[in-house]
Amino acid sequence: MADAYIVEAVRTAGGRRNGRLAGIHPADLAAVVLDGLVDRIGIDPTAVEDVIMGCVTQAGEQSFAFGRNAIFASKLPDSVPAVTIDRQCGSSQQAIQFAAQAVMSGTQDVVIAAGAESMSRVPMFTNMSFHKKEGVGVGPVSESIAARFGAAEFSQFGGAEMIARKHGFDRETLDRFALESHRRAAAATEAGAFRHEIVPVIVDGEPHLRDEGIRADATLEGIGSVKLLQEGGVISAANASQICDGSSAVLVVNERALKAHGLTPIARIVDMTVTAGDPVIMLEEPLFATDKALRKAGLSIADIDLYEVNEAFAPVPLAWAKHVGADPAKLNVNGGAIALGHPLGASGTKLMATLVHALRARGKRYGLQTMCEGGGIANVTIIEAL
């Protein structure tokens, strides 16, 4: 089967909730990375055959063919189609995998996988509607689903607490991991590690180039003082991912496109895996998806040079590392979502931008990206830097 290649991967610097990016319409935020990607590569925009846009909260300004609206806001011609997909937090990671499948099959040759989310302007859950049935609110979980799983709702917060208990992580362990995320992100920023992957967003005439969520002065005591999300639990806002505004994009092509457009790839996609499991504990599936992906690729965790595991909640990457026997020094080497933010539908391509550039900067070969997703799903993508 033909290979799929990554030619370039970019992202915006994250914006804090109601921060510097909050004044930008989500379609315009998405357009920034579409334009930045095409401009950086120098490819003819008419060569782009599709845009696959990840977005979780498809409501309000992110509704009504959001991906297509991003095209209209960008420099791409109106002839470029787009589709908006939702695989929860893995939406744009799935966009990469769909794009790779398209170019590997030869159906298309040049596809942009992207994601955007303005969590300030379109808050989480605003796309969920409820109605009253005999005085009781009825939402996405039907009575039959609730009866099957013994749960009236599937809670990511509850799932994070379950993982912490199951894998034996106390609050101090989680808080120490959170502190390390801030330290690594701050160090990466000061060293210029994000310089190549970030495209500027012009805000009030000035380029936004630094992730707003990083707390270079964070302390264990400060993190430990943040109120727990539930009584008797271990999860707080400080050891969970930050609400974030941002966008990101990856250009995926096949060998035919490399030759036709004179492109130089920066990575090859080695394996694409998606699995699903328990929707109640929900966030544990990356552990088992990684097992499958490594088997498929004929690799061991020792063969992987760097891993990006989304820090939705601190117990997730910690449980993942424990389960697969990962080296903590290779995990989220430039910090993760606890410091940098988790812009939901944009996080998949955001993490890929960080992973591929971190591999190349270090002269390393294999990278693995995974994240937990609503409904007990997980994507894993393994790449080889070129």
UniProtKB/TrEMBL annotation:
It comes from the Bacteria. InterPro entries: Thiolase, Thiolase-like, Thiolase_C, Thiolase_CS, Thiolase_N. Pfam families: Thiolase_C, Thiolase_N. Residues 5-255 form the Thiolase N-terminal domain. The keyword Transmembrane does not apply. The keyword Acyltransferase applies. Residues 263-384 form the Thiolase C-terminal domain. Belongs to the thiolase-like superfamily. Thiolase family. This is Acetyl-CoA C-acetyltransferase.
